[in-house]
Amino acid sequence: MPEADRAHRDADRLDDLVGQWNAVRPDLDAGVMAEIARVLQLARLMGDRLSAKAAEHDLQVGEGDVLFTLFRAGPPHRLSPTQLADSTLFTTGTMTNRLDKLEARGLVCRIPNPQDRRGLAVELTAAGHKLVDRLVDEHVANEEQMMSALSGREREQLDRLTRKLLAHLVGE
Length: 172
Known about the structure:
It is built from 7 helices and 3 strands, in the order αααβααββαα. By secondary structure, it is mostly helical. It starts with a helix and ends with a helix.
């Protein structure tokens, strides 16, 4: 079943579920259940598309995040593992595993940290730089396609609303 058809079916199903809740518990605002379910469904669908695009290049999304983070750090495209973990919101254990895989592929290398002789820095290799420079265009096009159903004004509204929800949930 095409993705658009599945999304319409799932939306109708959510409306049906809300109707069932309203019938048995009219005192509840069951609509919020559908709102949350739609956000979760969007996150899953977007995550699936990002994963599929990364897989085309034999990468996982988290590995792409590491490469993109090093690239956007600017020359010399080098960060400490702690800076990388903080910037990508990964644990240091997860970061070590990702760095091992990327280093084995020749996309990053670990070098002595010029600012801290006791530590290491992670640097994008020439092959990694070339790959990211090519992938970032595909990545942005993929994200633009996902958002193309919304007008510019709707995207601005979505940005404001998601920022507001994030600030609320983080601040709790």
